[in-house]
Amino acid sequence: MKIIRLLILSVLTFTLLVNFSAPVTYACSCAMPGPPTEEMARSGAVFTGKVIQIVDRNKTGLTFSSADPMEVVVAVDEIWKGIDESQVVVVTERSSASCGFEFEVNKEYIIYASKDDDQLRASLCSRTALLSAATDDLTELGEGEKPTVDVVIDTSKGPFSNSSIWLLIGGALVIVVGVVYVLRRRKS
Prior knowledge:
The chain has helices at residues 2-19, 36-42, 135-141, 163-187, and strands at residues 45-55, 69-81, 87-93, 108-116, 119-121, 129-130. By secondary structure, it is α+β, with helices and mostly antiparallel strands. The chain folds into two domains: 1-24 and 164-188; 31-157, CATH 2.40.50.120. A five-stranded mixed β-barrel has the order 1-2-3-5-4. The two termini are 17 Å apart. InterPro entries: LPXTG_anchor (IPR019931), TIMP (IPR001820), TIMP-like_OB-fold (IPR008993). Residues 1-27 form the signal peptide.
């Protein structure tokens, strides 16, 4: 009977830990972006390109957040600022609820990205848009340059860190240690 109570208590404790471990997130709220040249000055990189792949490293996770990072691989066509590679990875949040820009594979975009620790980040709050809706940007920015460094992005990175999996492993370990402890005490 004590083992059952201990197991129930362990499961309840673990459930509380999992439920309260998620970070607090807020809905997206941002000011309208300025004109193209002003936003280019604020951005770390400005370029056009076609999305060739979207990588969701948390697709097998047990919990999802609108703020989960998504890696967007872009084949760069024209550059105005900040990069020189033919392919780049742009990181954005999973959903527009967390200010993530919701890219689609095989569509072309103009991307105004910030640079965060050598990582390009796109946001719903920037002037990033479908290329077909960016005629004002293209007119104001003028002609860009072609990429000078030929790169092929390999998105098949090894195992990734997933906090949900680590929480499950930790919780299971706590339960196993608790059961072993109770069984040993019972034998004494």
